[in-house]
Write a structure and sequence with these properties.
Number of domains: 1
Largest sheet: none
Radius of gyration: 13 Å
Order of helices and strands: HHHH
Oligomer: single chain
Distance between the termini: 19 Å
Number of helices: 4
Shape: globular
Helix content: over 70%
Length: about 100
């Protein structure tokens, strides 16, 4: 499977897991919040799958997971859950796609 396709699949899974974890939470506009969370997490998978750096895969994932999660964390002021989830998800996706070494 190509890195790009693996990134798309990983992004879909990561987005679904995130939305699943958020369904019990209350939001003023729940549909918008869940949609935005899904798209952000999907984008993390796609970007990690498309990027080609000579760095270790886990570092690529950690960097892009954190970087793409920062705007939502700033807007919502929920820094810890958003940044931790983005970093851990990116770390795992980067390790799966690009390797752990």
């Amino acid at each position: 499977m190509s890195h790009q396709l693996l990134g798309v699949v990983s992004g879909l899974v990561f987005g679904a897991v995130t939305v699943g974890l958020m369904t019990r939470m209350a939001f003023p506009d729940k549909k918008a919040a869940l949609s935005a969370a899904f798209v952000e997490r999907f984008a993390i998978g796609v970007v990690i799958g498309c990027v080609q750096l000579s760095w270790p895969g886990w570092l690529i994932g950690l960097l892009f997971g954190l970087l793409l999660s920062i705007p939502s964390a700033i807007i919502t002021k929920a820094f810890a859950p958003i940044l931790i989830m983005g970093s851990v998800g990116g770390l795992v996706i980067g390790g799966i796609i690009h390797g752990w070494a």
